[in-house]
Amino acid sequence: MMVLTRWMTPTEQNRYWMAIRELVNVIRKELRR
User: Fold this and answer.
1) Residue 32: CB partners within 8 Å, gap ≥ 6?
2) Do 16 and 5 meet the contact criterion of CB atoms below 8 Å apart?
3) pLDDT in tens for each of the 33 residues of the chain?
4) Taking the chain, what is the end-to-end CA distance rounded to the nearest angstrom?
5) How much is the CA Rg of the chain, to the nearest whole Å?
6) What pLDDT is recorded for position 25?
7) Is the pTM of this model over 0.70?
8) Given this model, what pLDDT does residue 30 score?
9) What pLDDT does 1 receive?
10) H helices of the chain, where?
């Protein structure tokens, strides 16, 4: 993942990490069920 972010602009990196955090939150909610 770190390799991918090297070629991204700061704004693209923010969107990328925000998307990952969203997915992590959804997965955690599913696991709690």
Assistant:
1) none
2) yes
3) 566 667 778 888 899 899 999 999 999 999 998
4) 29
5) 12
6) 96
7) no
8) 95
9) 54
10) 2-6, 10-32
Indicate the residue type of 17.
W
The residue whose two tokens read 């969107």 is: 15
Q: Which two tokens stand for residue 5?
A: 């972010």
Length of the chain: 33
Q: Which token pair is 8?
A: 């991204």
18: tokens are 């925000």
> CA-to-CA distance for 18 and 2, rounded, in angstroms?
15
In the block, residue with structure tokens 């992590």: 24
Residue type, 1: M
Q: Take residue 25 and report the two structure tokens written for it.
A: 């939150």
